[in-house]
Amino acid sequence: MLNEIPVESWNLRNSERGAALDVVTGAKDIYGEPIIFTFYEDGRVYVHKPIAHPISSIKVYKGRWIIEYRMGNDINVFTCIVGRDIIVPQRLEIADDVSNVEGHQDIGLKERIFLSGYYVQGLEKVDKNVEFKERLVLIVCFVDKYGEYKYAYCFNPRLTVKVPEDATKIAYVEVLKYADTVNDLAGCLNMLKSDPENTELIGQVVELWVEKKKDLLLNKFCEETGIPRDAVDARRLHNWAGNVGPDFQIEAKWDITDKYEDPFKKGEVTAIVEVKGTAIHDPTVFDLQVNKGRKKLTDFLMESETARYGVLFVLDYDIWSSSEEGLSMPESVGNYKNPYIEITRRG
Amino acid sequence: MNEVTKGKFSIGFLRRLVELLSEGKVRLEDFKKFEEGGFVKYEKEGLVGSPPRAILEAWIEAKKDSSGMLVAWTLLGFSSYIEAHENGAIEIYSQGMVDINFHISLAIQPLFDRELKEAEKIGDKKKYDELVQKWIEKTEEIIMGLSEGKDFEECIDMEDKRLRRTLSLLRMIALYIKYVREIAERISGKYGFEVKHYLKPHEDWDFFYSAFNSSGMSEDKLLEEIKKRADAVREAQRLGVPGISKRYLNDLRKKLESVKKLED
Predict the structure, then answer these.
(1) Would B235 be classed as within a structural domain?
(2) Statement: the pTM of the whole predicted model exceeds 0.95
(3) What part of A 4-63 touches B (C-beta under 8 Å)?
(4) Which end of chain A has less neighbouring CB within 10 Å, N or C?
């Protein structure tokens, strides 16, 4: 892959050893620093790390330049590449000689990605604190000893990731937009499996599931309010659970009345929806969420100009046995049917 | 120069605000407009995922007075939530950080666990419901205390033997509160106005928050003020952690230390 290193710029100068040519190359080390060579008139070649050191040898191995340089009496080695920046959504092919993960519980991806020909600077975009739209996430696809694919998600800038059980090697790494992944039920669920205590993701999965199965919610709503099913639609109000206000609202598609003859004009919000999720199958925690949801709906209904109904949706599911085909959930939690849907009317 | 009369805004103002907050990438014309009664709504959908599907990316909801001026509006999008009130107050929130309400509830669950189980065992529904309410009230009392500036340790007796099971979670919440307050303080110092760590009893999440009174400001000054404060709460959020766990808190500690070193 790497036969020559492009020259970015050069400068000819006089030095104590006579003429010296400083060459800034297009190759970079793992920290993203450009490789600078100095060629002296007497034939010696130095590399800057960050000050100039004489080079002992350069080897090319699987597309990488492995440079040995002397620092006092020590010989140091570093690798440089001419590669591509990983900080755009793309699939990264991992080199065979660095793909093995056997015997590891956790691995660092940084060096493996670098040695596969990609620059790894700018990793702050993988950080959880980067603005939502800018944020990136890495999916690591492993192959296990039975040839099956297993996935782990990485959203820390250190690029460390847990190795799934029985995984033997990395097949590839994929860089994705976090906003895309967290707004996709399968993606969000898989991220949650990599970070099962993340209560924010637990809630996000439920919101996405409700969005997908909104008929469940709307059928119950229409049944209890007497509003024709085709006259309303539910919309999710945020693309990330961490926002102020209700999670969904139900709007009238045309002028309608409910069974109490209360009118709603086209486009008006008829109901607001609060969605809550748990994943620990604890009846008391489920009960807590139901009661908290009720309080929130009371607040929201007081603030809303047009909504006359509050819809509470609480769901408990199992993280590990859920998949992109569907969430796995007990039929009931304590005395509650699961999912639990409650419609309240203002006034 | 247009001056904003107390709490009244023109559509032109909203147009400029959208362009400013989106750094010129989005225009009000990119939004779908709905007008009904005294309200006007603007919604912008974005595409996510593969295959792409539409999601609500930003929205604005405004109330109109008889002259067509906007008297109160809310804007959600561009990593901010902004509320302009009729009295001229403007409130700017970051995106939510952690589900603090739920974390606190789980941390204090052992205070009620035994009695809840007993009530359940004997089928005393009234008592059980009362206990759940008490549990919620205790959570809200703690959040209220925190929102008044009390330390977490002042809001809950961490020495209570019943809390041994959740002591590590309680300690992490205490540290989290300490760190996010430190961030708010630093950002306030940097920008020269108050950025608060914001909690509210019925709200699940915590936010960074800044507020000011817009009365008498010119449109230009007001736009500048909103942008500055939106930048400040976003910067505060970027320094925070969106999770309460040992790993996130260690990350946050390191970040705070590195910011401190830079300041020194």
Answers:
(1) yes
(2) no
(3) none
(4) C
